[in-house]
Design a protein that fits this description.
By secondary structure, the chain is α/β, with parallel strands linked by helices. It folds into two domains: about 40-235 and about 420-440, 3-Layer(aba) Sandwich (Rossmann fold), CATH 3.40.50.2000; about 240-415, Glycogen Phosphorylase B (Rossmann fold). It contains 16 helices and 16 strands. The chain has an eight-stranded mixed beta sheet with strand order 4-5-3-2-6-7-8-9, with helices on both faces. A six-stranded parallel beta sheet has the order 12-11-10-13-14-15, with helices on both faces. The radius of gyration is 23 Å and the shape is globular.
């Protein structure tokens, strides 16, 4: 009973705080109507509201990517984190500052279960901190990593400061778990309200950036966006993955896997949105047909213990390895060591596997078909069909010629369509067009 009362009070206070924040935010927007718009800037200064801790998912080229290879003069990144219990403020480089915001800091509020209320208070405080930073540092563009609460922050700051804002869509929120921890900050109770809000934020923005065409075809991106407002920049992997297979190493000895064993590989987060527990069930089906098999799961996350427990229950503990999250410079060797790469859900790791010329078996899920292309560069199986997945894996591990065919086709496609320089130039041009349409003069750009 007490727990239900506390939960209701948390919800009620969260709603009240949200309304106060919205009223205050729009009041500041109305006041700013009388402010003159600045038209000339000495370089691009960006406020980046992110769902990524750039220290933990760092690529050797990523700092340059944040600054768009020098187009952006400075970047101030705010990352909302659901796991950390305190804020952090770190300099990633001379021109990039990262502030980690703890959504649920350790205090009396969170201890007594007022998580929603605490998140609202954190949002309120963070908004004014971002506004203060933006004014102090002369921020002239804002980028939000989702069209939800982060996008709403960008919308308000954009109108208060009279600068453009960009919404970056980097996940299919409709197909993934709505409550995925840390994926995105989504405060809505009803899906219809959420979708309407998404469209409002994207249509209000100066630019919607995506990393794959799938979001547009899935109708996640409004089809009636004005010309030039939507740009699919694609995405790209770390440069270390460009090395051909003959220059890569082999990690069998390091992993303790004999030459007689075939290796299945998964690289990525171990969390609900990746459906990684299915990998253990797939391994069980494979083992029923082909015994000399080992599954290597490279990554960390909430589901690691669940996967280990299930493997133990199915008698597969000796057939699955968890080397953890490996550094980027070691991943090319890991991909090279594998015989088949398996994905229940993947992003740029699918491109990494393709660049290693490895055959891919994946669920027909989210954007996978966009890359695999009707089984031209790998094999797609119906989502959740463990037995079919296992059959395709076994077919590949038994057929050297077929593995090579799929692997070479995947590598050729990845090289031709996922070039870092081509994607980066699309992004740079998109930024230039945003400022040009606003009539802003950026001295280092135009």
């Amino acid at each position: 009973m007490l727990k239900s009362v506390m939960k209701f009070l948390d919800l009620l206070s969260g709603v009240i705080l949200s309304v106060i924040f919205i009223v205050v935010g729009f009041s500041l927007v109305l006041i700013s109507v009388f402010k003159r718009e600045k038209k000339r800037y000495a370089g691009i200064i960006e406020l980046y509201i992110s769902i990524i801790d750039f220290r933990e998912s760092i690529l050797s080229t990523q700092l340059d990517d944040i600054l768009l290879d020098g187009l952006v003069k400075k970047a101030f990144c705010y990352h909302f984190d659901f796991d950390k219990t305190h804020d952090e403020d770190v300099g990633l480089s001379e021109n990039i500052r990262l502030k980690i915001i703890s959504v649920h800091p350790e205090n009396l509020f969170t201890r007594f279960g007022f998580l929603r209320s605490m998140a609202c208070l954190v949002e309120f405080r963070s908004f004014f901190d971002m506004l203060k930073t933006a004014k102090r540092e002369g921020v002239n563009i804002i980028r939000a990593h989702d069209p939800h609460l982060l996008g709403f922050n960008a919308f308000l700051l954009s109108h208060i400061l009279k600068v453009p804002f960009i919404v970056q869509v980097c996940s299919n929120y409709e197909l993934k778990d709505r409550a995925a921890k840390g994926l995105t900050f989504r405060p809505f109770l009803f899906k219809t309200v959420e979708r309407a809000f998404e469209k409002f934020i994207m249509k209000s923005s100066d630019l919607v950036l995506t990393d794959r065409e799938h979001y547009r075809s899935f109708d996640l991106i409004p089809r009636d966006l004005t010309e030039g407002k939507y740009v699919n920049m694609g995405f790209y992997t770390d440069a270390v993955h460009d090395e051909p297979s003959e220059r890569r190493g082999d990690l069998r000895k390091e992993l303790g896997i004999s030459n007689e064993k075939k290796i299945l590989l998964y690289v990525g987060r171990l969390c609900a949105v990746k459906h990684t527990v299915d990998l253990v069930r797939i391994l069980a089906e494979v083992s029923n047909i082909f015994r000399d098999i080992v599954l290597v799961v490279a990554g960390d996350g909430d589901l690691k213990d669940d996967m280990k427990k299930l493997a133990g229950e199915l008698g597969l503990s000796d057939s699955i390895l968890f080397p953890g999250k490996l550094p980027q410079n070691k991943l090319p060797d890991l991909y090279n060591t594998a015989d088949v790469v398996c994905f229940t859900s993947a992003g740029f790791t699918m491109v990494e596997a393709a660049l290693a010329a490895k055959p891919i078996v994946a669920y027909d899920f989210e954007w996978h078909d966009e890359f695999i292309g009707n089984n031209k560069r790998g094999v797609l199986v119906p989502f959740g069909d463990h037995r079919r997945f296992a059959e395709e894996v076994v077919r590949l591990v038994r057929d050297d010629v077929l593995r090579k065919k799929y692997g070479e086709a995947a590598r050729s496609y990845a090289i031709a369509n996922y070039s870092r320089m081509a994607s980066l130039e699309k992004e740079r041009d998109a930024y230039r067009n945003v400022f040009k349409k606003r009539g802003f003069v950026i001295e280092e750009v135009l």
